[in-house]
Amino acid sequence: FLLVWILDSFVLDFSTFLKELIPLYLRLSLAGLVLLSGWYLARRGIKAVFGTQRDKPELIAEGVFRLVRHPIYTGALLLYLGLALMTTSLASAALWLLIIAFYVYISKHEERILAQEFGNDYLQYKKKTGMLFPKLGSR
Asked: Per residue in 90-134, pLDDT tens?
């Protein structure tokens, strides 16, 4: 992603024509908000998974895991989106869509394992929590 974004945004300038239509302050403000949100989700997700000593595996459904089942992936997606918004790189946005499909594929594989490990508790959690994006009206 970064290679495509850098090449398109700063070298080839192939698909960034929208930057002429959208003011810089607006692009940077929106991108900054998306980047900070992504950083927060990824950081809090990593801390919840790897920052706590557990005697045995347990289902994590608190903190950012109340919003989405895969906050680290969502955080990464928001970081990529923020970069694409900053420079209005359509090539990066197209690649971003492919990355979403890849994360969905990986997430579904992980969720089969989690359903086997945690059974009905995980299935109930899955019903009320979005995979990569929060479910609207689920709380």
From this structure: 999 999 999 999 999 999 999 999 999 999 999 999 999 999 999
Burial of 24 (0-12, 13-18, 19+ CB in 10 A): exposed
Looking at the chain, how many residues does it have? 139
- Element (H or E) spanning 26, and its range? helix 24-50
Q: At which residue do the structure tokens 């949100």 appear?
A: 37
Which residues are within 8 A (CB) of 74 and not within 5 positions of it... i.e. 6 or more apart?
Answer: 38, 41, 42, 45, 68, 132, 133
For CA atoms 80, 82, 86, 88, the dihedral sign is: positive
Amino acid at 40: Y
